[in-house]
Specification:
Length: 318
């Protein structure tokens, strides 16, 4: 590792999930397994369902049940963080994207692992109760300005700017379907995410009240001493606003602006602890030609986590 290089932990949110996340680590890494089992107990308590059974089932169904995917993403990221912590890897900064801020907050002591899992469940319940069905779609290899008029015509909301030519839209199923048909007609590349709710849009705002009611019943957040980079504010936060953990999933995110802010801190090694490595990919595309920063991905659907952990250890300590 280079001298004076800052370590940044990255955490991702909805859309990064898939069945079997971290399955090899669950079978072979006791720290990862124990962490997931603790989260499983919390999910059973609040939902009477097994997170582990849902994650590692042989089913071929799309993994998009919000009541499970919301806590599953947080639980897997917490488990991955516990593995990294045991390796004595300490971040200078943490940065979450959307739901990923729940786990980033655990790392910086804003709330406990248990609170993060419970809050993710309660947030999912609030959104599901509001019945604001919809979805999200990522436009690829296309300047946003070139389709901005089109997505406004289809009443879609800009959810996030990820990097140049790559952005996410939210909206109702009907409007997404019609917009998708138009993209097909024009030959524009896109990916429909396995998400059944329109995060980062006003369409989920009805769920705010239930989650705020829950938030009133939990202990006050601890404020981070340093190093908590808000994906929402694109700034380092030392005080956590009251409704912060609703706003991170309901308001627009500018990933590019966040990376630019972190890059001003100096040369970084960005370590992606999310399930799919999407945050590392986004960072790579946002790094300028003069940047000496690097990214490192651990988890992916290809199940190479054990190999990647060994490579990370060599990179940092040899």
């Amino acid at each position: 590792m280079e001298d004076n290089q800052k370590i940044v932990f990255l955490f991702s949110g909805q859309g990064s999930q898939y069945r079997g996340m971290g399955i090899k680590l669950f079978k072979r890494n006791l720290i990862f397994k124990n962490s997931l089992e603790k989260s499983d107990l919390i999910v059973k308590k609040h939902l009477n369902r097994s997170l582990i059974d849902e994650l590692y089932t042989e089913k071929n169904e799309v993994f998009d049940d919000l009541l499970i995917t919301h806590p599953a993403i947080v639980a897997v990221e917490i488990a991955m963080y516990n593995v990294i912590k045991e390796m004595n890897v300490k971040p200078d900064f943490v940065a979450g994207n959307s739901l990923g801020e729940f786990t980033a907050a655990v790392v910086k002591g804003i709330w406990s692992e248990e609170m993060a899992i419970e809050a993710s469940i309660e947030q999912a319940k609030s959104i599901v109760r509001n019945d604001s069905k919809g979805g999200m779609l990522v436009v690829l290899n296309q300047k946003r300005k070139e389709v901005e008029k089109l997505y406004h015509q289809h009443e879609l909301t800009l959810a996030s700017d990820n990097f140049d030519g790559h952005f996410t839209l939210s909206g109702s199923v009907k409007n997404l379907d019609s917009f998708q048909s138009e993209l097909d007609r024009q030959g524009v590349e896109f990916v429909r995410l396995a998400v059944n709710y329109p995060f980062h849009s006003s369409l989920i705002e009805g769920g705010r009240y239930g989650f705020e009611y829950y938030s009133e019943s939990i202990p006050a957040f601890s404020n981070p001493k340093s190093g908590f980079i808000s994906g929402l504010e694109c700034d380092e936060l030392l005080v956590i606003p009251k409704n912060y953990f609703w706003d991170v999933v309901s308001k627009y995110n500018d990933f590019s602006k966040m990376v630019k802010y972190i890059e001003n801190k100096g040369t970084c090694l960005y370590i992606d602890l999310g399930p799919s490595g999407t945050s590392a990919t986004f960072v790579n595309y946002n790094l300028g030609p003069l940047s000496n920063s690097k990214t490192f991905q651990i988890m992916s659907p290809f199940k190479r986590e054990e190999r990647q952990l060994k490579a990370l250890e060599e990179l940092l300590f040899l």
